[in-house]
Amino acid sequence: MLRNFSVILIGLLILTSCSLKKAKIDNDLKKYFDDKNVEGCFTMMDNSNGSITVYNMAMDTTRFTPASTFKIVNSLVGLETGRILDENMIIKWDGVIRPTADWNKDLSMKEAFKVSAVPYYQEVARRIGRDTMKNYIDSLSYGNRNISGPIDSFWLNNTLKISPDEQIGLMKRLYFDQLPFRKSVQQTVRDIMVMEDNTAYKLSYKTGWGFDETNNAIGWLVGWIEENRHVYFFSTLLKSKDHNYDMTKNRLAITKDILKHYGFFEGKR
């Protein structure tokens, strides 16, 4: 029994992260983080050959709060369980005025995902419930799998954590319908992750912004880019002591600068 458990555990680790043994370390990417005055890491997997490129391996293999990147999983579980009927399901605004104006209205899931509306997804998590959520977190082998404490904030308060490397593994499994959800559910989430789509490339991602235990600001951008029928999975993570640091602007700017560095956005990859 112990041997079987070990085999299963090893299999889960392989599925939920990318293999870093063959990773290429590219320290040339440091300049893009330095230019924006921030610490960070970047990881990319070329699915055509399995090659992996990493800047800042130490951060890449460290777990952090997923913040709003968890909306990917929250959406999957919500749709699979019927707590979200479809991407157009409205949850009424609770009337509480919040600093982000786009949150202060009735929202569909699609809209809530695009504007990263925390209240919408907190309500979804409450409707899903702890036992069901924990079952899916375990089946996904998501990060440290810890969802203790309030059911509507475990992905925001450093209870649940995931590494950039593990985010890459999750993105790959989502892209190829390899997660424990119906294919139609995975397709719906992939569709709402599309942020740019033109004749040269398609860029899909989810952002996240939170704070770690020592009050550093943490910024995420995870997803994939498709060019010429090839897909490349990526994860960008930023960490800053400055609470006024512009995560919204710089996490995307750094990601795009790095992708341009590798020749993306021209339809020639």
Describe the structure.
It contains ten helices and nine strands. The protein has a seven-stranded mixed β-sheet, with helices on both faces. The chain has one domain (2-16, 24-261): Beta-lactamase (3-Layer(aba) Sandwich). The protein is α+β, with helices and mostly antiparallel strands.
Summarize the structure.
The chain has helices at residues 2-16, 30-35, 57-60, 71-81, 109-114, 118-128, 130-140, 164-175, 183-193, 247-261, and strands at residues 23-25, 39-46, 51-55, 90-91, 107-108, 194-197, 202-211, 217-227, 230-240. The chain is of the alpha+beta class. The protein has a seven-stranded mixed sheet with strand order 1-3-2-9-8-7-6, with helices on both faces.
Topology:
Layout: H1 2-16, E1 23-25, H2 30-35, E2 39-46, E3 51-55, H3 57-60, H4 71-81, E4 90-91, E5 107-108, H5 109-114, H6 118-128, H7 130-140, H8 164-175, H9 183-193, E6 194-197, E7 202-211, E8 217-227, E9 230-240, H10 247-261
Parallel strand pairs: 1-3
Antiparallel strand pairs: 2-3, 2-9, 4-5, 6-7, 7-8, 8-9
Helix pairs in contact: 4-6
List the strand order in the largest sheet. Answer: 1-3-2-9-8-7-6
CATH level-four homologous superfamily name: DD-peptidase/beta-lactamase superfamily
Report the top-level CATH class.
Alpha Beta
What characterizes the major β-sheet?
A: 7 strands, mixed
- Number of helices, counting only DSSP H or I runs of 4 residues or more: 10
How many domains is the backbone divided into? 1
Helix residue percentage: 25-40%
CATH architecture: 3-Layer(aba) Sandwich
Per DSSP E runs of 2 or more residues, the count of β-strands stands at: 9
**Mean of residue pLDDT?**
93
End-to-end span in angstroms?
47 Å
Unreliable runs: 1-16
Report the radius of gyration as a whole number of Å.
18 Å
CATH topology: Beta-lactamase
